[in-house]
Amino acid sequence: MQTRSQARDVHGMDTLQEMQVNGASQAPPREQSSPHEQAPLNEEVMPPHKQVSPPPHVEPPPLGVPPQEAMIQLTQEALLALIRDASTRAAAQAIAQFAAQHPVDLPPPSPRRSQELSSTPRRRSRGRKSPFSPAILAEALPVGVKVSNLPEYDGTGDPQEHLDKFYAKIDWYDLSDTAYCKVFRTTLSKRTLAWFNQLPGGTISSLEQLTQRFLHHFFMNKRVPKTAAFLFTIRQKENEPLRDYMQRFVEAVHEVPHVNHELLASIMQQNLSPGRFKESITGKPPSTMEDLLM
Questions:
Q1: pLDDT score at 39
Q2: d(CA 151, CA 197)
Q3: Residues of the chain below pLDDT 70
Q4: Which CATH class name applies to 228-293?
């Protein structure tokens, strides 16, 4: 038999259990915190310059794509977008930093100055002064004028012959002498250009001065004009046809300036090999070269 005290204890425990059950059933449900709920005041807030920018917007996957593949696709696209965004920001910061450290504020060169720079010898870029005077350096070819097909001199031919060919070409153009100085320099090559570049700076002020120095330096290559005595060496060879000999003699005459035609006819008659043609003109020698060739 239970004692009175034991009965009270059992009754009290039943009452306590009943109250706990009723309290649990009547307790109001706890509200779930929203993901957008404001952070507690005691939580550390990152400053604006250290906050991470939100990932760029990514379009949802098309319909019919399995959830797992869609999640992988969204993750890859978001990662690539973040990489591109970070690369763009890094490049912009690097460019801005370089521009700040290397300021450039130079005015563009004038058209005349650009022409001077293009026509100035390369040696000026190495700190040496051009042989041309400032007046020649400041001269520029007229707009649209291009001088081409000029003879080239490499230092082995007759300098006077090169000048004659040069003048024959530039007669087609109406340019100043200072402009022709620059044009003449373009006809020099190899060691002739090296000779020009070693001239003292600013010592060439005219085309005449340039051509005189050119002829003086390369005078050893100048051909000595042949005289009439040279023509006596142009004799008809044995068994050489008369036509071939006459052609060879005429070519030799072109190398001898200012020769009297009567003298030419007499020299040619003496240089002929014995034969019927020489015998036919022995009694009445031709008075001119034209009569002899006829």
A1: 46
A2: 19
A3: 1-76, 79, 99, 102-128, 282-289, 291-294
A4: mainly alpha
